[in-house]
Amino acid sequence: MARGIIAWHNEMRNRAHLYSKGHCQACNKEIARGVIHHNQYPKGWKNFDVEYLMDVDVCVYLCQECHTLTHKNDALKPCDICGELTLHGLQRGKQLWIPDVSLCRNCSENLKREYGEILLKKGVAEIRRSLSSVEVEK
Description:
By secondary structure, the chain is mainly alpha-helical. The chain has helices spanning 2-19, 50-55, 64-73, 89-95, 105-115, 124-131; strands at residues 35-38, 59-62, 76-78, 85-87.
C-alpha cells in the first residue's frame, strides 16, 4: 500500500514539474526537482489531476527555497480567536476556507464542530464576523 502512495505522489510531482515547465511558480527559477505545496485541502482533492489543482490555486509547484519560505511565513502566529501562539495557524484557516485567519488546533476543531460543512458554503466575511462569538473550550 505504501508503495502505491509513494508512486502516486512521485507521478504527481513529475506531472507538476512538466506542467510548470520545470520552473518554480513563486520565483520562476528553473529547477530539477520541486515540491508540491498545498494551499488548501478541499474535500476530494486527491480525485483531481494535479494540473487542475494548480490552475485553481489549491497547490503550487515550488523550489525547496520558496517552499521553506512559505512555511516560515506561516510559522508561529497567535490564534485570531483565543490569542494562543500556534504553529501553522494560517494553514488551518486555509483548510477551513478562511484565508488570512490563524487558528490554533482547539479553535479549528471548535469551528469544524460548530459549522461543519457550512464552512464550505458560507462567505469568508460572514465567518469572520462570527469568529468573535465562538466560545473556546479549554
